[in-house]
Amino acid sequence: MKIDSKKLVAAAAQARLGSVSPYSKFKVGAALLTKSGEIIGGANVESASYGLTCCAERIALFKALTDGKKNFIAVAVVARCDAGPMPCGACRQLLREYAPEAKVFIADSDDLKCIRTFTVKGLLPSAFTLVP
Ligand code: THU
Questions:
Q1: Residue with CA nearest ligand 1 atom 3
Q2: Which protein residue's CA is at the shortest distance from atom 10 of ligand 1?
Q3: CATH number of the domain encompassing residue 85
Q4: Domain-located, residue 60
Q5: Is the CB–ligand 1 distance for residue 44 below 6 Å?
Q6: Distance of CA 80 to CAs 16, 28, 132, Å?
Q7: Which domain holds residue 42?
Q8: Ligand 1 site, residue 46, Cβ cutoff 6 A
Q9: Which of 57, 58, 83, 109 could cross-link with 30 by S-S, CB 3.0 to 4.6 Å?
Q10: Does residue 101 carry a catalytic annotation?
């Protein structure tokens, strides 16, 4: 199946509008694409106890997983920063566990047409797993 990276990036940009980031003011949106064509979005949610903050990628992933979605083939992440936001280490671990075959599309919200493409496996080589 040909993946429409522009559409997925647009979905991540839309999800970003839901960001709850009163502390950093750094809005991040993510969108997952399943093999059957469903798109699930999420955005970062921050806490006054900063360490409780949850990234957009994990919010999208947890939403999708707890709605019974699986077989993720791509994820897009969008924020307002040059070249777009790379997923943090924690999100790379979760994506590696639950979306190992996914492509990763990254874009700056001010320049959605410029999309950088990676893979989940490429972003976290030699990952820790319990299930091979
Ligand atoms: N953030 C994400 O949503 N995804 C990442 O991969 C890295 C960081 C969020 C967390 C926090 O709300 C804000 O960006 C600043 O770190």
A1: 55
A2: 55
A3: 3.40.140.10
A4: yes
A5: yes
A6: 10, 8, 36
A7: 5-123
A8: yes
A9: 57
A10: no
